[in-house]
Prior knowledge:
The chain is of the alpha/beta class. It contains 12 helices and 12 strands. It is globular. The site of NADP nicotinamide-adenine-dinucleotide phosphate has 29 residues, from helix 1 and helix 10.
Amino acid sequence: MLSLGLGTAAIGRPQYINIRQEAPKDFSLADFREAGRKILDIAYEEGIRYFDTAPGYGLAEQLVLDWVKEKQDPTIEVATKWGYTYVANFDPKAEVHEIKEHSLKKLKEQWKQSKKLLPYLKVYQIHSATFETGVLGNQAVLNQLAELKADHNLLMGITTSGANQVEVIQKALEVVINGVPLFDAFQVTYNLLDQSLAQISQQLLQENKRMIIKEALANGRIFPNEKYPQYTDLYKVLGSLAKKYEVGIDAIALRFCMDSIMPYKVLSGAAKAFHLTENIKTERFKLTREDIGRLKQFAITPTTYWKERKELTWN
Ligand SMILES: NC(=O)c1ccc[n+]([C@@H]2O[C@H](COP(=O)([O-])OP(=O)(O)OC[C@H]3O[C@@H](n4cnc5c(N)ncnc54)[C@H](OP(=O)(O)O)[C@@H]3O)[C@@H](O)[C@H]2O)c1
């Protein structure tokens, strides 16, 4: 089973947070949908069986649903989320892309659609759990999640973003409903720059929780870019490791996530076939302990990391 999973955010809506400069020209929804389907097919042919989606990802959840029903492969695992509504209507010029709402009403509304993914749906997550929305203290929501978990044999999860991811995970670990810890899966940002998850990864493994890594390429910031001169040394080390293992630096960065904290899956967020096939090369090799040690030195503080991420635009 591959360690790589496919995240579908970038194949579900034309605009997404990354370092790209230009918006796609002459956007066609039909072509976009077809391109997304092709990515799902390539991922499957290459052996990927874990697919992460969300109602907030434009057409992605429906695309995955249609595709998975055709595939009929019981080894496919789908993870989805609730809590964000996509509102940009595929307009490349939209100013608001998504609206966050962690209410019981939104959970019930989005579950109605997401449950169609059963029996492939294995993981159900709160999309970007934060202290601000109070979702981890909302008893009505937590009870409902516990019910869904028991009724449909789901792994219940949260996804996290932001400088306080570790605190949010700690709080989620304390949630117990009817004597059973509610959360089993944690989809967390972890990469060469934000390595804060490492503080709690051992505990998560010991408690038999799943870690799923997102934003493993730091939204593209691990690729040499003159806008980030502070990462010149990182780019050099990544370049030399890429040469050593005869892969691209994306494969090195993904492999770092796999070999340094042993997650259940690392998500590729590729929207282009070429990027996906390059990402998959991460399955060909393992980093040595020395390589990992060299790469660990490039961690920056979560505050700096998330400040820089906030400056990235949707494009
Ligand atoms: N709050 C949440 O729950 C949350 C937040 C973020 C992400 N996620 C999940 O995690 C998944 C992955 O995250 P992500 O896509 O945001 O971040 P990521 O993997 O850090 O970054 C993906 C970026 O790297 C680029 N890329 C990939 N391979 C490349 C290559 N070989 N050469 C050059 N560029 C390359 C992609 O470009 P292209 O697009 O051009 O291929 C894209 O811009 C998402 O799809 C989603 O499922 C969840």
